[in-house]
Amino acid sequence: MYDVNSQGKSIPKARSNTAYGRATTPSEKIFTDRPNYILVNMNGTYAFSYESTGSVGGTHAAHSSYITGSVVDDAAGPVRLDIQPNGWRQTNATGAVGDITFVYTGDIG
């Protein structure tokens, strides 16, 4: 947690950006970094992919690689799921940005 400066004194070590948590709302059917957990924010039936067959930011439209994992009804959200998918899609309608939140907790705390 500390570095030593030119005079031999301890000074606080700068934290990297990965030290802090963040949340993103990725588009559906796009490869994304695996989160620590996700939030399902909208009613619907959702499927998640766990396969690593593409690059982050690339299109991930192969329906066979998604597993149905959540059905949210009657404005019950947000619902936390402790899963680490690398993509999502809505199976009963067209998904929109904000339907699913990927949460990254960082490496401090």
Can you describe this structure?
The chain is mainly beta. It has one domain. 0% of the residues lie in helices and 35% in strands. The protein contains no helices and 9 strands. The chain is elongated and about 65 Å long. The model has no long low-confidence stretch (mean pLDDT 83).
Largest beta sheet: strand ordering: 3-9-4-7
N-to-C SSE string, H for helix and E for strand: EEEEEEEEE
Distance between the termini: 13 Å
**Which outline best applies?**
elongated
Residue stretches low in confidence (pLDDT < 50, at least 5 long) are: none
Strand content: 25-35%
What's the total count of β strands?
9
Oligomeric composition of the shown chains: single chain
Give the rounded overall mean pLDDT: 83
Count every helix, treating DSSP H or I runs of 4 or more residues as helices: 0
Largest sheet: 4 strands, antiparallel
Write the layout of secondary structure elements.
Layout: E1 2-4, E2 10-12, E3 22-24, E4 37-40, E5 44-49, E6 66-72, E7 79-81, E8 87-90, E9 100-104
Antiparallel strand pairs: 1-2, 3-9, 4-7, 4-9, 5-6, 5-8
